[in-house]
Specification:
The chain has 261 residues and is of the alpha+beta class. It is built from eight helices and twelve strands. The strands form four sheets. It has a five-stranded mixed beta sheet. Strands 2-1-5 form a three-stranded antiparallel beta sheet, sandwiched between helices. It starts with a helix and ends with a helix. 18% of the residues are buried.
C-alpha cells in the first residue's frame, strides 16, 4: 500500500512540474527565409475603424488650417491616446474618411503611402504649387489587446511604426510560468475575415512566423498550461505543498471516520 501511495505521489509530482524546455524562449538555430521576410514586411492595408493621423504643412498656414479637424484646434499639444483620437480621422463603415473641403475619401484597403498620394492629388485643386505642401499620413498609434496567461492583460496603444509579438507580450508583463509559450495565438481581422495564427515562442523560427509582427486591432491570447487547470502548482515546491496538504486532509478524514465508528 505504501509503495502504491509513493508511486501515486511521484506521478502527480512529475506530471505537475513544468519542464524547462517549455519555459525557454527561442530554442534551436535560426534560418533564413526570404519569402517569410517579404510577407512580414508587406505594408499594412487600412480597415474599418482604423484611426489615421494626417498632418499638413505649407508656407500658407491659414489655407492649411481649413483642412484640419476642428477638434484638433482646441486640444492640448501633449500627445496622449485620447488627444490623438480627436486629432485623427476614423475610417467609417464604408471605408471612408472625411476631410474638410475635400469631402469623403475612400481609404479601405489602401496603404499609408497610397492614402498620402490620394490626398496629395486632391490638394492640387487648392494649391498652385503642390511642392509647397508637405503631408504626413500615419496610423494614429498601433492598438492591440493581450489576453490570457500574462501578468498584465489589457489593451495597449503603442506609438511606433512596428511592434512584434515579443514587444507586445513584454508590454503585458511577459508570460508567467503557468502560460503556454508553445501555443500563443493571434486573432487578426482583415478584409477577408478573421484569421487565427499560432506561434511557438520556444522555437527560434518563431521570428519567421506570419504573425511575428503585430497589426492594428490584433488580439494576442496566451493559453494556460494544463498544470494550472489541475491546481497542483507550477513549481516542484508548490506541487509538493499541495500533495502534502491533500494527504493531510485525507488522513484526517479517515481518522475522524474511524473514531466515529
Amino acid at each position: 500500500m505504501r509503495k502504491v501511495l509513493l508511486l501515486f505521489i511521484a506521478i502527480i509530482f512529475f506530471s505537475s512540474c513544468v519542464p524547462k524546455k517549455e519555459l525557454v524562449y527561442f530554442q534551436g538555430e535560426p534560418t533564413t527565409k526570404d519569402s517569410i521576410y517579404k510577407l512580414q514586411n508587406e505594408p499594412y492595408r487600412l480597415q474599418v475603424h482604423d484611426m489615421l493621423y494626417i498632418d499638413i504643412k505649407s508656407s500658407d498656414p491659414q489655407l492649411v488650417a481649413l483642412f484640419k479637424n476642428t477638434e484638433s484646434q482646441s486640444v492640448q499639444t501633449q500627445i496622449t491616446p485620447e488627444i490623438l483620437y480627436f486629432k485623427s480621422y476614423s475610417v467609417d463603415r464604408n471605408g471612408n474618411i472625411r476631410i474638410p473641403y475635400i469631402g469623403e475619401l475612400n481609404v479601405l484597403g489602401y496603404t499609408e503611402k497610397e492614402v498620402l498620394d490620394k490626398i496629395q492629388k486632391e490638394f492640387e485643386n487648392f494649391f498652385k504649387n503642390s511642392d509647397d505642401i508637405f503631408i504626413t499620413v500615419k496610423l494614429a498609434g498601433l492598438r492591440f489587446t493581450v489576453l490570457g496567461e500574462v501578468v498584465n492583460p489589457g489593451t495597449v496603444v503603442a506609438f511606433q511604426n512596428q511592434v512584434n509579438i515579443i514587444e507586445a507580450l513584454a508590454q503585458a508583463g511577459d508570460i508567467p510560468i503557468t502560460g503556454n509559450r508553445k501555443n500563443v495565438t493571434v486573432f487578426r481581422k482583415n478584409l477577408n475575415g478573421t484569421n487565427r495564427l499560432v506561434v511557438d515562442l520556444t522555437r527560434i523560427d518563431s521570428f519567421d512566423a506570419q504573425n511575428f509582427f503585430i497589426q492594428p486591432n490584433d488580439i494576442v491570447y496566451v493559453e494556460p498550461l494544463k498544470q494550472k487547470s489541475w491546481g497542483t502548482g507550477a513549481t516542484g515546491a508548490q506541487t509538493l505543498t499541495t500533495i502534502i496538504s491533500l494527504l493531510s486532509l485525507v488522513t484526517t478524514t479517515i481518522l475522524l471516520i474511524q473514531n466515529i465508528n
